Amino acid sequence: MTSLHDQLADHISQGVIPPYQYSYPPRSAYRPLEPGAWDVGEVWDRDLANHQSPELNLYLHVPFCNVKCGFCNLYTVISTDQDVYDAYTDALCTQIRDHAAIIQARRLRTVYIGGGTPALLRTEHFEQIFTTLAEIYPNWRSTVEEVAIEATPDSVVDNPDGFARLLELGLTRANIGIQSLVPQEIREAGRSRSNEDVIREAVRIVQEQGLPDLSTDLIMGFAGQTPESWRHSVDELARLEPTTVSTYFLTVRPDAWFSKTGSYQYMWDPALYERYDYAREVLTGAGYVQEGSVRYKKPGRGGYVQKVLTFRGVPLLGLGVGARSYTSVLDYMTGSVRPSAKEVADYIRKARNHELAPVTGFPLTGEEIVRKRLVLDTFDLDLSELDRFGLDRIGGEVTAVLDAAETNGLIHRLGRRVQLTPKGFKYRDILSWMFYSEHVKTLDREHYEGLHKANRRARKTMGADPVRITGIDLKEPA
């Protein structure tokens, strides 16, 4: 039997690239919940008892986009209908008020408005959201460390005055999706409006307006991307000096358009890790420090506070049609996992009538709480924090994985504290997968096998060539 050390070494040598581990259990492990079986108030009351210092991250989901990127499998709906935006904002604010007791029982640490492209909303929509938040949590601007929004370069360029107003309302960070600074690759992503000139103009606008934290991203592995074009994007972005940079490997999940059409080959190639190495060298040389496996920040300025806190076990309350909530009792959604205009309409109606309840999710046992922290937080984790959740019950398995990680040079051990080495940052997603429970792996596999079958049926109907998905037992755990 192959040892864990050898398995891990083999995955590294193959250049296996699992999807970025940003949640555990992943959405693919969610299953329908029995109607009425889970009361939101009771879930959060039970969660409160598990935290010595009650804190909270707040995520507000706005699903609307004006285009659908080929690689995106997020909950998005194509719409620029302002009447729909009005109704949706009303529903979201109603849902915020309905969760007042949950928010008030904790110290609010972050507010993140994600999507979709929330920057498509008008200024008055954001004023309504922040006014509602102030109604139930008057001191939110004093306690919240980060107020963030997702935007596209063209949404900033089209409405610079609206962006300036967001800064007045308390915005501290904007995630502006760039993906590439090579025109052909931008078109490949389906972002034809966000050309290089628009990207540079958006960066100039937010920097001149004094945004504290400009967060940008680049993607490794687009079709047609070369080592030279990757280096161009990294070099040019470093010259623009955003405060935060994320570099992601492209993951084509089977519910993204690239995979549905069969027009994209999933790339697992050790050479892609050379692009990771180049980005790390350039960015650290430019004064950035590595905050996570994908993220670099300017010290004292950049970073992604909500993600860091969530990885450390601070619960997240997700409101909006496609939002997920993360607690120590139940991870759940109150809406469908399949985005559509109908689902948005159903969400608006149910929010208005105070009828939203968990419909899909994953109940967390003590073992899964332990695994969640190990999957997400090996950057710097004190294992003694997990003792009260029953670490000893899977202690042998955890020790074996950590031993394999240490002998492969991925972690430091400082007493009971675990920290990733530079090599560990690089291969963190491979290591994280090794902490998955067999139950979650099975649910994940069933979910993606179902999507692949549906895609194959659809491609036969369309007459498209089949997509080639390469993988081992690590395939698509996101």
From TrEMBL:
The family database entries (PROSITE patterns) matched by this protein are listed as:
RADICAL_SAM (PS51918)
Q: Give the record's keywords alphabetically.
A: Iron, Iron-sulfur, Metal-binding, S-adenosyl-L-methionine
Recorded hits in InterPro entries, A to Z, give: Aldolase_TIM, Coproporphyrinogen-III_oxidase, Elp3/MiaA/NifB-like_rSAM, rSAM, rSAM_sf
Under Pfam families, the record lists: Radical_SAM (PF04055)
**UniProt GO MF annotations:** 4 iron, 4 sulfur cluster binding; catalytic activity; metal ion binding
Source superkingdom: Bacteria
Identification of the protein by name = Heme chaperone HemW
